[in-house]
Write a structure and sequence with these properties.
α5 packs parallel to α9. The strands form five sheets. This protein has a four-stranded antiparallel β-sheet with strand order 2-8-5-6. It starts with 6 loop residues before the first strand and ends with a helix. The longest helix has 25 residues. It is globular. With 305 residues, it is α+β, with helices and mostly antiparallel strands. It is built from nine helices and 14 strands.
Length: 305
Amino acid sequence: MLENVEWGEYRLGDLFEIERTLSFNADRLVDGNEYDYVTRTSANQGIFRTTGFVNKENINSENTWSLGLLQMDFFYRRRKWYAGQFVRKIIPRIDLPPKAAPFFSVILNHQKSVLLSVLVRHVDDTFRELKVKLPQKNGRIDFTFMEAFIERLEEGRIADLGVYLRACGLADYELTEAEKAAISGLEDLEWGEFNLEKLFGKSTRGRRLKSADRIPGDLPFVTAGEAEEGVSDFIGNRVKVFSQNTEIINMAGMIMWRSSIRKRCRRTPLSLLPAPFTKRLITDSSTMGKIFMRKMRTSWISLCR
């Protein structure tokens, strides 16, 4: 589909304006979900939390992009939003159809490495002078092609997801009567406030262990990363070992439960893996191939917990 497209070069400053946002801290947020509160984080599409109305002057328009100056990630904002510190807003200067927004999100995020290479004070000027290639027809941006391309991708991903859910036995997403009763019963519970230190005791810290000093082994080594439940390596060093059935809180504020001392799987027989994953041999890099390989790896590791 892309091989027959005519491409044209465009300056980002002619397509978008980049502006500073009026920001405030999270302590000014109120209950409600009418607006998104966007920060410089890369998690959850940059959304720290939702909020009700705070004030009029700080509201940013929908159908724009936010740019977090920490990781230089662009996120399309489908509804009005407030901003924390170090966030820019990207406003289209052209009549851009919302259905073409995902195409432009990819184009914008492709500029990440360039923006990370300059000082923050130079980001605005650098952004405006960047040039990108876009589909065009008769010398004009071809939004029709973009919308059709995105629609085809969505159809393919939905089909892949359906195959994945059926293979995992998750195709039926309807709640049972027991599950509905459990959810509805939450409204009748009595809730109270408790001090976390009284519930869990004082927090303790581990010691830093540089990559060069790590000895290969079976003990999971937890760092501040969010992937793999925070486990970045398996070590054999003589270090303090934390008990199982504890909570881990990393520097990013992520909380993870350690239900057991997980060990690396080395000789787990393939026959112990769930059938849906052993029946399919993945030899390509397709979307479904990656999904199944990730699921197989997760299932494999879980056998060692």
